[in-house]
Design a protein that fits this description.
It comes from Marilutibacter maris. Belongs to the thioredoxin family. This is Thioredoxin. By secondary structure, the chain is an alpha/beta fold. The protein has a single domain, classed as Glutaredoxin. The protein contains four helices and seven strands; from the N terminus they run βββαβαβαββα. The radius of gyration is 14 Å and the shape is globular.
């Protein structure tokens, strides 16, 4: 089946080819059967980051955050609400920079929260500071390829 988009499974990180026209039809993982989308942000470690951002073909909006950060905690429900609106056009994910300092360093995260939009495994846009759900959705859509 050619012409599909490679989407990593949120549970097992297996690569799944999904026809672009069927992304909104609740596709499941061919390996473990888990839903590929559930309308919530995905917590990523280094292996998950590489599977979803670098090897997947779906754009990924990553929230770099830490549990001790008040603005990060305040933005968390807003980011989750944005996920419900933006999936399956793009995946929303969170990277806890305290638990995954290598990822924060790898992408030069200097302040949190910081949103980074990755398209084709490359950074396309970055925004520091807490945002509401509507602003997150608007900002992400503005930076997606047409």
């Amino acid at each position: 089946m050619s012409g599909g988009i490679i989407v990593a499974c949120p549970r097992c990180n297996a690569r799944n080819r999904v026809p672009a026209a069927r992304l909104g039809e609740a596709p499941g993982c061919g390996k473990c059967g888990a839903p590929l989308f559930d309308g919530r942000p995905l917590a990523l470690d280094e292996a998950g980051f590489d599977a979803h951002v670098l090897r997947g073909e779906l754009p990924v909006l990553v929230d770099f955050w830490a549990p001790w950060c008040g603005p990060c905690r305040a933005m968390a429900p807003q980011f989750e609400a944005a996920a419900a609106q933006l999936e399956p056009q793009l995946r929303l994910a969170k990277v806890d920079t305290q638990a995954q300092p290598g990822l924060g360093g790898r992408f030069g995260i200097r302040s949190i929260p910081t949103l980074v939009l990755f398209v084709g495994g490359r950074e396309r846009a970055r925004q520091a500071g807490a945002m509401g759900a509507a602003d997150i959705v608007r900002w992400a859509r503005q930076h997606l390829p047409q």
